[in-house]
Amino acid sequence: MGCVSNLVSSVTKKIIKPYSPTPTSLRCHKLSYLDQIIGSIFMPVALFYPKYSDRKPSIDISEHLEKSLSKVLTHYYPFAGKLNNNVSVDCNDSGVEFYTTKIDCPMSQIINNPYADKEDVVFPKGVPCSSSYEGSPAVIQLSHFDCGGIAISTCLTHKIGDAYTMGNFLKDWATITRDPSSKILPSPQFNGASFFPPSKDLSNLPIVVPESEECSSRNFVFSASKLAALKARVISQSQVQNPTNTEIVSSFIYQRVMAINKRTLGVTRPSLLVQGASLRPPLPVNTMGNIGSFFSVLTTEEKEMDLPRVVGKLRKAKEEYRQKYKHAKTNEYLPITTGLYRDADEYFTNNCYDIYRFTSVTNFPFYDVDFGWGKPERYSPSSYGPVRNMFCLLGNKGRDGVEVISYMKEQDMLALERDEELLEFSSPST
Question: Which GO molecular-function terms appear in the entry (predicted)?
């Protein structure tokens, strides 16, 4: 590829602290039950911005971002603190790490070769998807390419927030960068523990995501026309009307990996499609932290593998999931959620079942993050995956297609790349 980590030069590091001290009443941020059961990995997102004619010189960009980062941290104060085991965050305003680097290649060389050594280039080294990094709970990197383009990457610990929290953090940071006098409304609230009280028995928490395993990543793009063709097939053969892009793509990928396994093994392996889902609503949209759960689809027989049937079962599971929480009282959220994990524990811990995890950020505002020099040309997570058989659905810049980043064992990935039906409706990103 030509642009690898040894072409990263002029690395500088600063510690950025909140502009205003965190009030004494907020100094101890209690982790919620959902925070406790999430792994301590760092979630990575990179935003790529082409050269902008009205942009200030590079040194001013760094200073501008540092000042606005300091201001936004007064609202996202737990990320400038220190984690206390799996119990709380000491919001002591110790700050976040901010790296500035020079990349000796054009940005197009990265964008046109996504996931090829990118984690060594625009992300802080050793941070993406790490569960052992001992630095600040948020780590930022600003990368300057020799073409004048820049990348802004953010790694936030999953212990304090989810992808929705990440999206709001970036949006609010950009808002303050464009206009330092802007008010962040509604103000983010780190009060997840009031909805999901933490557990005192830290030794008996469920395993939400297993330990990270070495896996390969590939990305596949579903264009608007291919999505329309898949939707037409589903609508004509099932009762599901207006299937969403997430329902279609998650079901289709799940169906294809099961079909590949059937061809390889000669039998249908019992499989579980696990779809992550937000709980905003019914919880307020400005509730930060890990505010979500999951619903799932179990497949045990070959006749259950056709696409319309999978989509139908996924839609039913989603509607049942929503109904569980829709009319629940605040003190009922935790029992409902622990019940979901208890019911699924048989599948998560039993090697007889193949688990395929899906998460979707197709509706998140990453392509709207404008720091004052236009919207990003591209956004993406790192090519490092937290666990095998995980699939992340991203939106595209035109808002009409879906890109899927797949994390699988190398031999499984090679089989997926050769699947003719997958390639009929998607194309590998180049």
Answer: acyltransferase activity
The third-level CATH classification (topology) of the domain covering 216-428 is: Chloramphenicol Acetyltransferase (3.30.559)
Element (H, E) at 338: helix 333-348
Indicate the SS3 state at residue 316.
Answer: helix
Chain-centroid distance, C-alpha 350: 26
pTM for the full model? 0.93
Instruction: Name the phi and psi angles at 379, rounded to 5.
Output: -130, 155
Q: Which residues contact 132 (CB under 8 A, 6 or more apart)?
A: none
| Structural domain 5-204, CATH architecture | 2-Layer Sandwich (3.30)
Q: Identify which of 191, 307, 331 has the alpha carbon closest to the alpha carbon of residue 256.
A: 307
Whether 307 shows a pLDDT value over 50: the answer reads yes
CA distance 248 to 234: 8
Cβ–Cβ under 8 Å, residues 69 and 20: no
**Domain locations in the chain?**
5-204, 216-428
Q: Which residues are catalytic?
A: 158, 370
Is it true that 5-204 and 216-428 share their CATH fold?
yes
In angstroms, the CA 424 to CA 430 distance is 16
Per-residue burial over 336-363, b if 16 or more Cβ lie within 10 Å, else e, is ebbebbeebeebbeeeebbbbbbbbbbe
- The string of pLDDT tens digits covering residues 347-394 is 888 889 999 999 999 989 899 999 999 999 999 887 666 688 999 999
Give dist(CA 159, CA 280) in Å, integer: 18
Cα atoms found within 13 Å of the Cα of residue 397, Cβ hemisphere only: 10
pLDDT digits (tens, 9 = 90+) for 232-261: 999 999 889 899 999 999 999 999 999 999
Long-range contacts made by residues 23-30, C-beta under 8 angstroms, separation at least 24?
A: 26/77, 26/91, 26/190, 27/90, 27/91, 27/92, 28/88, 28/89, 28/90, 28/91, 29/77, 29/78, 29/81, 29/88, 29/89, 29/91, 29/160, 29/190, 30/87, 30/88, 30/193, 30/198
